[in-house]
Amino acid sequence: MNPGELSRFRDVQKLAYRCAQAIESELRPGMSERFVAGQMRRWLDDQGVTEYFHVPFVWFGDRTSFSGGWNPLKFAPTSRRLEPDMPVILDVAPSIDGYCADIGYGCCIGDNPVWAKLQDDLALHRSLILDLVKQRRSARDIYLAVDALAARQGYVNRHRVYPGRVLGHRIFRLAQTPIRKLVLGGFGADALAGLCRATRAARQGEAEKWPLWNDRKRSELPVTQGLWAIEPHLGVGPVGSKWEEILVVTETDAYWLDDDLPHLRRWAERSRVAKGDRAP
User: Fold this and answer.
1) Which of 129, 151, 152 lies closest to 213 in space, CA to CA?
2) So what CATH class is 3-278?
3) pLDDT of 205-218, one tens digit each?
4) Which end of the chain has fewer CB within 10 Å, C or N?
5) Is the pTM of this model over 0.85?
6) How far is CA 14 from CA 73, 120, 125, 191, 209, in A?
7) Domains of the chain, residue spans
8) 165, 168, 171, 177: CA torsion to nearest 10
9) Nearest one of 55, 54, 155, 53 to 114, comparing CA atoms
10) What is the rounded CA–CA span in Å between residue 142 and residue 86?
């Protein structure tokens, strides 16, 4: 993939994060998940977005930790209303001219120390994942390493109840077909078609095209070249949080598509303040 193409993916990822932060600034107690999801979509509409890898998902309170017998039918936003000190996850995957991004943004309206510590602890997962990809470890090994780190931190893996149990999935340029704006179950029709094609190819012997990172046998291969949306989602009791961003894997290297994202700035600021607090 050439630098120009990577720049287009990076621009869409930045746009998605700007959307999440803009909506965060407008969150108020009493708003419902459905209302907030609609606000996200209207914000993106105003920026010229007309197609999606997936439309906005919004989760409040214990829904951030996928509590209570979670299943894929519960992903869609509900009538759950925001209350003070509730954790929030905003997750959206817009596309412009087929270039798409998939982001997950955790925030909290008020003061929730459990959420704040969880959000801080997610930083270690970003460096762990990149190090293991660079070591050419398999996607399954990386998944299990994330599980082990989460357990040491006192958290449980919540991405295991995502479709396909995914820690990550392939990102690609969506085909510009007549159905590209069609949304099925929250996902763009072309996104679903692309993932299905890759899954079918992998099952027919092209193992390197397997589009998911999970703890299953098909993920027992080093991560292949391309773009991957990585989304560690952890929980403790009724509190959950995540981050999600694009990882670039080349023939010889791996790196995050963008090192200037909201969660990175938050971690840097929290680290700076902590060091200042320890200063004599």
Assistant:
1) 129
2) alpha beta
3) 666 677 899 999 98
4) C
5) yes
6) 28, 21, 21, 20, 27
7) 3-278
8) 10
9) 155
10) 30
